[in-house]
Each structure stands twice: as structure tokens, then as C-alpha cells.
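Give me C-alpha cells for this 182-residue protein.
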Amino acid sequence: ELKLARQAYTITLRLAQQSKSEDSLLVEILHKIADIDLQQLDFSQALKVYLQILSLAPTDETARAELIGLNFRMDQDATAFNELDELVALYENSGRRSQAIEFLKELIVEWPDKLELNRHLAHIYSHDGRKSLAVQQLDTLADGLLSAERRPEAIATLQEIIALEPDNVAEYREALRQLQKK
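Here you go.
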């Protein structure tokens, strides 16, 4: 049934393109096609469709969010983080920082092995003046980096924490000193 539905939507899309329909209608059809591709676990095809959506509607937040997840699934982390930066910028530019924060929290739960998500969330917290939450995210990141034996990155993260001057900055300085000795 999904295959037939996709074929029907593809025909509908072609007809809409030929009749020079509004981009919003094309985007709506493309979302339905991408949804079918996701249901069929055809991630590379879904990725192409979401990119097509963004070519028509660059501010389509749903398409960007789906692209982030798809790129993570396909081990294309750099592309996923580029899309994440674009989506966060969309939220920030429209005064919806809290939505960016919630989205990042969800991503961290869904992708706990993508440690850089914590850094992104920390930066948003920092820009929002929520230093203690930023420090908490960077601390989690540093622990994860150490567990993954990524010592130089953990050192850089501790330096980021120290630059924020948290109340317990002396503890972080000591941890940094100990880590640099090893």
C-alpha cells in the first residue's frame, strides 16, 4: 500500500508542478512522500525529499528537524550539525530560543552518543544568561569526552567551563590541571 501511495503522491506532485501550483502545495505533497519513505525505512530517499522541500521552503522547520535525525542515522554528523545550526538560527531569529532549547534536549535524549549536542545546548544556555545550566551541559560533555578517551577535547571543554567562571571554578581548574598532567 505504501508503494502505491507514494506513486500516487509522485503523480500528484508532477501534476502540481506542471500546473505551476503554489510552493506550499508542493511542500505539502513532498512531506507526504517523505513520510512514506521514512515508513519504508528508505532514509536516503527521504533525505533527498527533505532537501527538495528546503529548496522550496528554506524555513521549513519540520524538514530541517527530520534532516538532522536522518543525517545522524546515516552517520553524517557534520551535515546533521550544520542543519542543527540552521534550525537553531531559525528559532533564534524568530524569538523562540526556548523552542531551540527543548529541541536540543530531545535530541540529546534520542542521540546520547552525539556529545556535541551538549555543547550546542550549553551555548544556547550561555547566550540566554543561564550560566549554571551551560556549565552543567559542558560538564556532561567533558565527562563523555573522557569516557570516549578524547582527552584533548575534554581539556578544551574544561577550559570553556573555566571561562564561564562558575561558582566552583577552583574545582574545574584542579580537574584541568590533573588532566593536563596525564
